[in-house]
Request: fold
Amino acid sequence: MDTGRVLGAVDRRIFGGFIEHLGRCIYGGVYEPGSPLSDSRGFREDVLELMKRLRVSVLRWPGGNFVSNYHWRDGVGPAAERLERPELAWGGTEPNTFGTDEYISYCRELGAEPYICLNMGTGSLEEALAWVEYCNSDRQTHWADLRRSNGQEEPFDVPWWGLGNEIYGAWQVGALSAEEYIAEATRWARAIRMLDPHAKLVSCGELGWTDWDVKVIDALAPYVDLHSVHIYTGSDDYWTNVLSPHAAERAIQTASTLLRRSAYKHQLPRAPRLAYDEWNVWFRAMDGGLEERYNFSDALAVGTFLNIFVRNSAWVAIANMAQMVNAIAPIVTSTDAAVAQPIYFPFLLHSRGHLAEAVDTFVEGPRVAAPEEHMSRWRHRIDDLGPFDLVDVAATVDSERANIALTLVNRSEDVERVEVVLKTGMFARRGRLQTVVGSERPSPVPGVQEASTHEGEVEPKDAVVVLDLLPKSFTLFESGITRR
Ligand code: AHR
Ligand code: AHR
Reply:
């Protein structure tokens, strides 16, 4: 590997999360007033603890499909006056006891940046402007004053605003055609920027390569900072499951080319970047509260997604794991415990281990061909991609080029011996290894699988270090380097 070949600055926002009013994600997950496990604000402390360890950098909210019929004013003000509403996306009742103020305190508690997705389904531009004013204005005006009267003197300074969620889809309340969306989103973007010139806007993309993406990127690049894309993968077939995240590589390549083209066409100083603002393994729990139970092959897929985001740091500015608690999530609660599913651990090691700049690696070794099975559910094919490295790797260095971190996904059913060779410089100290593998231990929450972490050290020799990776494992390797 060559620590001099920088691929891009790693934006810590790729270690972001997403919480939606869906099943037990917020109510009974993040927020459970009255529970002995909750603090005075109603936040589950055991969940907060697991979230904090992940160092979630940016937290998207309130949806997802939910947002397309969400009216933020129902969720602010005295608890007793908040209105219950039918919830159309997932079919429940929304109590509105968790709203904007609660979300902002949650973000502050986590040290995460807020990222609010706007309702472009049944919401109006007027309502969106009022929300931006409520959150971000320091003027003595109606909606900013409402925030003050709710006890929040200082503006929330919400930097990120999403212009709608999956608004192209028939499952979305108030779905729009690309032409309708472009016309609406252009009006919204101009108006929001008039109110808050610092607002960072995100256009609603699809999968990164669809006709919707082509049209929306072409028209909206002058008005937005980021274009959003979503990806879910998953299969009972092991190889399909662990390799499918590579579909994200095609999406990033295609979308970034479209963004570059549109920026050139519109003579923009810089092309918008990408927000992978929903991504995860999801294919089992398709209804109810989407309470997906993960195994370790899903964790290998999650480690690969994050490796892909690190390698594509030049383009991926934000990524939000969908979601964080109970609904397709790394954290699961019961009334008396919160536990981590296997997919928690690659996120943890990535978020805690990776450094400022992604650098290039060249992998020489066994490869695997793409499996024949297609994931028709989510329209991601990989049969035309590959072959893929058996061990998937991403590498970063700090800005002084004194420390190095590697994340390695060993998809093989055997121990794989990997020789890491520095093209320039030497290793400066012993390397630290943290490896996670699946485990059969019973979890305090029935049905949840455990994972076990192994720690160790390895002695490099000059520019080479040898790692023996456990079968089906995820590893973070950290060491020091010298330039020469
Ligand atoms: O994360 C679950 C759902 O997946 C979200 O609500 C929606 O945006 C996507 O279809
Ligand atoms: O991504 C589209 C998803 O497909 C929706 O969130 C879900 O409701 C549908 O099954």
Summary: The radius of gyration is 22 Å. Residues 65, 169, 171 surround alpha-L-arabinofuranose (ligand 2) (CB under 6 Å). The longest strand covers residues 431-442.
